[in-house]
Specification:
The protein has 1368 residues and is an alpha+beta fold. The chain has 46 helices and 13 strands. It has an 8-stranded mixed beta sheet, sandwiched between helices. A 5-stranded antiparallel beta sheet has the order 4-3-2-1-5. Helix 20 runs parallel beside helix 22, helix 27 runs antiparallel to helix 29 and helix 29 packs parallel to helix 31. The longest helix has 28 residues.
Length: 1368
């Protein structure tokens, strides 16, 4: 006999008593056999119970008789299974005698046995004995060591019949708990019955059953555990069990831990209690734990909060330390295992080597999933998988899912995870509850594993790490360890902004993550659940940077991860890895001189800095990730990471050109022929310490993105848009950093690749064309606009390529489809663009090329001269025309200044789709250098040569013909008039005589007059020069227009009602995309709009990062002297007359509220967009002084849906728990039910809507969940319609490390890069929504056409010409 096993049988571990150390457990010895068991009473049982089981009236009338019968039933329940009929009758009688405790129910079929009068009179007295006797049904028989379900030699029929009786007793126990009139003693007896049943069925270690017995055993064991926990929870509500019962439950559960069903039902019961506990602690606003319908009533609805809390803590610790499940030597340290080893195997094998313990790794994994479910519930992020964990109808362990975890059907949705509730407990509190289990489980099988428990006398020794069996067992437990590591990471990443985590907990977490990241079996769990680890201001977190760099390289460098991810979705893993990569892109720049922090005893990166370690590897990961990514949803954040990596590396770019050895391998102009390894190999070959590393990275990023854009992303809208945004950002990088020298040939290649992309997309078959495809083409034209620069436009080949794609967009085809084909003339082509949006985008690019508009400065190229300026100078009225249907001409026929020499002068104000321009034209009779004589005429040159003699005639004229008869055939004029009797004939004759006399005198004096030089007439002082301008430009082609064609020129009726507002409406619409961004500063804890607005008026105490951000967003400009967009339609593009204004204040000189749009704003613009950054102060443009208001157009005229501000509090947060009801305001939002009347001529079409963008600087990032967005929107007036669903809120928060966390970008940024990223985010969001609307130049064109329709004069051509000769 094995003496060690024998000693362990007699050993009792006193250290495991825990909270019940002062109490003794209740022994579960069964019901016993009584007197009949000693003398043998089989025949007595058969005779008695047969009569008692009949429905006839009971012959028992006294208590003594009932007591004697109970002894008979007691022995009958312990009879062998072969006496099934007797056992069945005993069960029927016992169950029937317990029914007086239940509420009356309709008679059942068959009729139950009759009840003796004593039982009816005192049901509680006999119920306790009956419940104790029913234990004999489950416990082994006197001559047996195992319960009946493990005696497979009896046959399946007998076992099934006995199992049916057990199910009946369990149903009765459940009914008694739900509706029975039980006292404290009866509850104790009922709980002991269930404990004894479960102990008999679950405690023995048995080998796997035969297949034909597996289902029955599984069902009965599952049923007894289910009833046990259900009844126990009801008992906690009606009669709370005493400490002895709780200790008994805990000791028994420790003996059942080799059963996976115990873990399932423990998780089920404790999760239901956790759901009720959280509701009691945090109220209904805390996220509810998803519980299955069958478990919804597991915890009584009226259970007191105190009972819930006590029950929850006790149930949670019922199974002891879950980490023991990965230690077979501890689990097998039970009397049943030791007895089995002695009796069945005669001590020949250690109990820890029993075959039933092979499932311990699976049970350990399930237990850790249960612990993780509890932690997730406390964090407020319960997963839907909790329903499966809490459900009692799970499948047997032999049934496995048929769908692999990474199949297409298992792919997760695109929705982002919801934010954590601010009501969640602190990290330290969760670690106090679950930290001991999680830390120990996360370090099993590692050298850092700690186990503080001393090995007691008689306990088996710890297994050696070099033991192959132990190593294999630890390897099988890696799934549970990974679950614990993931839970630790989720808890740590739930840290709130101002929360402090205890240093011991941080150290243990870092050690666990350090070992987890270096293990291929657990690295995926750490990466998946620690996506925010570097965003939380954790002390000492940089020690994990090398391990995360190595893990991310294994995940992102290849399409398939190089680490194990059996139960983890690979797509979610890559998504988490990209999120971590985004949080680390600023490290090479921000921590470039910081030595690499390492764990004590580690010396892998001695002498290296974080900049040297991460700069090259992060760049390689970004490039390789973009190269191999196949999912469009993940390619977008990868492109964002690549762009931020390039931008951060460009912050320290030197002023020197790119050397030849740093250029890309392929110098060809096409991406064809590139292998997938070329781009990554190029980046790996770069020297990160080189001063031109950033410039070389730009070239490779451009090559890679262009290659994938043409080869892989043509059909994916979001990825194509993101790639084009990246290329546009790289183009702006060249213009914003002149020292960032890139060869012109590289820029030409990028432009040619984008042109090829447009040609490929436009050349796809008609069935492939869609709105998404056209959106990609429009974005590509916008990307080309960003790449324009004087050097490219001066290159003939590049300009020809650009003009080809412009022609393709406008007409739908190229003049020369293939090189060498004869060009097709314009008149021969059919104007058929692929879409009107593409045509508009191509026209916009053409206009920029023609104007050479690359970066037109601060205020744009609009002329500030308008009608009000001219009126202020004292000039008269203007003539207004519409030319070609979309150009408005305003003509002033007066000189702008006092001219000493009157000349035909004209001032033309041209309003077209591309802006407002002014021309001044003057018609001069001579050059400005000519002498100035009287009247402005100049002397003609005098010919000093002698006059020439007239040449002799070549022939003499013939004499007049003599009269003949033919002359009489035609009557004379005099004869005809006299015959007709015309009264006007004398007048005609008189005129003829006068003309004949004049001609005669001229002829007579012709030879006698000396010829003189002709002198030009004096210039006239009154003339109409408008017709000269219109005639020169072909608008007065009298009789030359095609018949039936529309007139090219229309006259407008100026000065009528609404004329000034209509003109102002045209001027208020810019030719570039105008965007208003409102900037706020929210101090820690500020959740009211008044407090947030008050921060803008502070002159001191504001965060330095907030002021630095404002300085970088734009340049301060004065609203009154600004010719661009100012954030409101009333004040934009509206410069007053002859006003000398002082320069605007720089950020920091005064409170930020100075930029509230009344006096100053922060302005930024490029060739296609302009942004006005406004810092609301609580006052709007209408609160400005009367002399500063614009009377040109009001917001209601433009049709904005403005409303007065309300003092009511708006619910701007999904976690607002301050009130029960949320009165959501609709201030400044589109009320579809009650819309105000629009202004004449301006319909409410999609083009009228804009996007609301708010940038909020936070001191506490958690405050983003409680921001009063609805209230803040009331102070964001722009005078333009908007929709509530198109509001974008971007939050920025500075970390203690100096980096800035941005919500929209999901990245940590260097402060210098923050303004640029915020502008890019604002433009990208606005472009995403305005993609459905019309471009600015199209909006202006439509406004001009609306004005023309409203004020057009219906004049015929003669009437139009006549009006030109009259004063306007």
């Amino acid at each position: 006999m094995n003496v060690g096993i024998f000693n362990r049988v007699n050993h009792k571990d006193k250290d495991s008593d825990g909270m019940y150390a002062e109490w003794s457990s209740i022994p579960l010895e069964g019901g016993g056999q009584g007197v009949l068991g000693a003398v043998g009473g089989r025949d007595v049982v058969l005779a008695v119970v047969k009569q008692l089981s009949s429905p006839d009236p009971s012959p028992l009338t006294t208590d003594a008789e009932v007591e004697w019968v109970l002894e008979v039933i007691r022995y009958g329940l312990s009879l062998p299974l072969s006496e099934h009929s007797a056992v069945r009758d005993c069960v029927r009688v016992a169950c029937a005698w317990l029914t007086p405790l239940l509420a009356p129910t309709p008679a059942a079929q068959p009729t139950p046995p009759a009840l003796p009068p004593p039982v009816v009179a005192e049901p509680h007295r006999y119920a306790r004995k009956i419940l104790r006797h029913l234990q004999n049904l489950f416990v082994p028989r006197p001559d047996e060591t195992l319960a009946f379900i493990y005696q497979w030699e009896l046959g399946g029929d007998l076992i099934s019949k006995q199992a049916v009786l057990c199910h009946r007793v369990l149903r009765l126990a459940r009914a008694l708990a739900d509706g029975g009139a039980l006292g404290g003693a009866e509850w104790k007896a009922l709980l002991l019955l269930l404990l004894a049943a479960a102990a008999a069925l679950l405690a023995p270690p048995v080998p796997p059953p035969p297949p034909f017995h597996a289902a029955a055993i599984f069902q009965l064991c599952d049923r007894v555990l289910s009833v046990l926990f259900e009844v126990w929870l009801v008992a906690c509500h009606r009669s709370f069990p005493g400490p002895a019962l709780w200790r008994t439950l805990r000791e028994q559960c420790l003996r059942w831990r080799h059963r996976d069903l115990l873990t399932k039902h423990w998780t089920r019961a404790s999760l239901c209690l956790t759901a009720r506990l959280l509701n009691n602690l945090y109220g209904p606003h805390f996220p509810a734990v998803p519980i299955s319908e069958e478990d919804a009533n597991l915890v009584p609805a009226d259970m007191s909060p105190e009972a819930v809390m006590q029950s929850w803590y006790r149930i949670l610790h019922t199974i002891g330390n879950p980490v023991d499940l990965c230690r077979p030597r501890v689990i097998s340290q039970t009397p049943e295992f030791l007895q089995y080893s002695i009796t069945q195997e005669e001590g020949g094998r250690e109990p820890s080597q029993h075959p039933c313990l092979e499932v311990l790794p699976h049970i350990f994994h399930q237990a850790m999933k249960g612990v993780a479910a509890h932690v997730d519930a406390f964090l407020g992020t319960p997963r839907t998988s909790l329903i499966g964990l809490s459900s009692s109808s799970s499948r047997p362990p032999s049934i496995a899912p048929t769908t692999p975890p990474n199949s297409i059907t298992s792919q997760v949705a695109e929705t982002e995870k919801p934010p954590l509730t601010p009501l969640r407990p602190k990290v330290n509190s969760i670690f106090h509850l679950f930290g001991e289990w999680l830390f120990e489980a996360a370090l099993i099988g590692t050298s850092a594993n700690y186990n503080t428990q001393q090995r007691a006398e008689g306990m088996p020794p710890q297994a050696s790490a070099s033991d192959p069996t132990h190593s294999y067992h630890m390897f099988r437990c890696q799934a549970g360890r990974a679950e614990a590591l993931g839970t630790l990471c989720r808890v740590l990443c739930s840290k709130q902004c101002r929360e402090e985590v205890l240093a011991p907990y941080l150290a243990r977490c870092y050690v666990a993550m350090h070992h987890g990241l270096r293990d291929a079996a657990t690295a995926a769990a750490v990466v998946l659940n620690a996506s925010d680890i570097f965003r939380l201001d954790l002390d000492g977190v940089l020690v994990l940077v090398p391990d995360f760099i190595n893990a991310l390289d294994k995940i992102l460098s290849e399409r398939e991860p190089k680490i194990e991810c059996d139960s983890i979705d690979k797509r979610e893993l890559r998504k988490a890895a990209i999120s971590i990569l985004l949080s680390m892109v600023a490290f090479p720049y921000h921590y470039k001189d910081l030595p690499v922090p390492e764990f004590p005893g580690c010396n892998e990166y001695a002498g290296m800095t974080l900049g040297e370690l991460t700069r090259g590897r992060i760049a390689v990961m970004c490039v390789s990730g973009v190269q191999v990514e196949w999912s469009g949803a993940l390619a977008v954040p990868l492109l964002n990471a690549l762009y931020l990596c390039v931008r951060h590396n460009a912050l320290a770019a030197p002023a020197q050109p790119l050397p030849p050895d740093m250029r890309a391998r392929s110098e060809s102009g096409s991406t064809e022929g590139h292998s997938l390894d070329d781009f990554v190999a190029d980046v790996r070959g770069l020297d990160p310490s080189s001063p031109v590393f950033g410039a070389a990275l730009v070239v490779r990023a451009t090559y890679l993105v262009c290659h994938r854009l043409i080869s892989s992303w043509k059909g994916e809208l979001q990825v194509s848009l993101a790639a084009l945004e990246l290329l546009s950002g790289l183009a702006k990088l060249h213009s914003s950093k002149p020292e960032f020298i890139i060869d012109a040939i590289e820029r030409k290649r990028a432009v040619r690749w984008i042109c090829d992309y447009i040609s490929v997309q436009c050349g796809r078959p008609p069935q492939a064309h869609s709105r998404d495809l056209h959106s990609c083409v429009v974005a590509a034209y916008g990307c080309l606009s960003a790449w324009l620069c004087p050097a490219l436009l001066a290159d003939p080949d590049c300009l020809a390529t650009l003009m080809e794609v412009v022609e393709l967009g406008i007409s739908g085809t190229k003049s020369q489809a293939k090189p060498g084909d004869p060009p097709m003339m314009k008149d021969e082509k059919e104007l058929k663009p692929v879409s009107m949006r593409v045509r508009d985008a191509a026209e916009s690019l053409l206009m920029q090329i023609l104007e050479q508009q690359v970066d037109n400065g601060l205020n744009g190229n609009w002329c500030r001269l308008d009608e009000r300026w001219l009126a202020a100078l004292g000039h008269g009225k203007l003539r207004h025309f519409i030319a070609d249907g979309n150009i408005m001409l305003s003509l002033l026929e007066e000189p702008l200044a006092n001219s000493q020499e009157p000349q035909p002068t004209l001032v033309v104000i041209i309003r077209c789709a591309w802006g407002r321009y002014a021309w001044s034209l003057s018609s001069r009779g001579a050059a400005r250098s000519a002498g100035r004589g009287a009247g402005g005429a100049c002397a003609r040159p005098v010919d000093t040569r002698p006059p020439r003699a007239p040449p002799a005639p070549h022939c003499r004229p013939l004499p007049p013909a003599p009269p003949c008869a033919l002359d009489a055939a035609f009557p004379t004029l005099d004869a005809v008039l006299r015959q007709l009797g015309d009264p006007e004939a004398p007048t005609l004759f008189k005129l003829l005589e006068q003309q004949a006399a004049i001609e005669k005198r001229v002829k007579e004096s012709e030879d006698n007059v000396v010829p003189e030089e002709y002198v030009p007439p004096e210039p006239v002082t009154e003339f109409q020069t408008a017709r000269l301008f219109l005639s020169h430009f072909g608008y007065l082609n009298i009789g030359g227009d095609k018949k039936g064609g529309a007139a090219r020129l229309w006259a407008l009726r100026a000065g009528g009602a609404g004329w000034a507002a209509a003109v102002r409406r045209v001027d208020a619409c810019g030719a570039r995309a105008a965007l208003t961004v409102h900037v706020f500063c929210a101090r820690a804890g500020h959740t009211r709009a008044a407090d947030i607005l008050r921060n803008a008026s502070c002159t001191s105490g504001l965060p330095a990062g907030f002021l630095a951000m404002l300085r970088g967003l734009g340049k301060p400009v004065r609203v009154r002297g600004h010719g661009g967009w100012t954030g409101h339609v009333d004040t934009s593009y509206d410069t007053p007359h002859l006003q000398d204004l002082p320069p605007a204040n720089n950020v920091g000189e005064k409170a930020p509220a100075i930029y509230d749009g009344r006096e100053q704003v922060l302005y930024w613009s490029d060739s296609t967009s302009e942004i006005a950054f406004v810092v609301p102060s609580g006052l709007g443009p209408s609160d400005a002084p009367p002399d500063r208001r614009s009377d040109s157009i009001k917001s209601d005229t433009d049709g904005s849906c403005t409303s007065s501000r309300s003092s009511e509090k708006g619910a701007g947060s999904c976690w607002d728990v301050s009130s029960e009801t949320h009165d959501k305001l609709r201030a400044l939002s589109l009320d579809l039910d009650r819309q105000p009347a629009a202004a004449p001529g301006s319909g409410r079409r999609n083009r009228d809507f804009t996007t609301k963008i708010l940038i909020i600087w936070l001191e506490d990032f958690e405050d983003q969940l409680n921001l009063p967005i609805e209230e803040l929107l009331g102070y964001c007036e722009t005078g333009v319609w908007w929709r509530r669903e198109e509001v974008c809120v971007v939050c920025a928060c500075e970390a203690r490390s100096g980096l800035v966390r941005v919500s929209a970008a999901a990245a940590l940024l260097a402060p210098r890069l923050l303004p640029h990223v915020l502008r890019q985010q604002a433009l990208a969001h606005a472009r995403l929504h305005t993609d459905l609307y019309q471009p600015p130049h199209v909006r202006r064109r439509h406004l001009i056409q609306e004005l023309a329709q409203q004020f057009r004069q219906d004049l015929t051509e003669p009437e139009l010409l006549e009006s030109l000769f009259k004063s306007p």
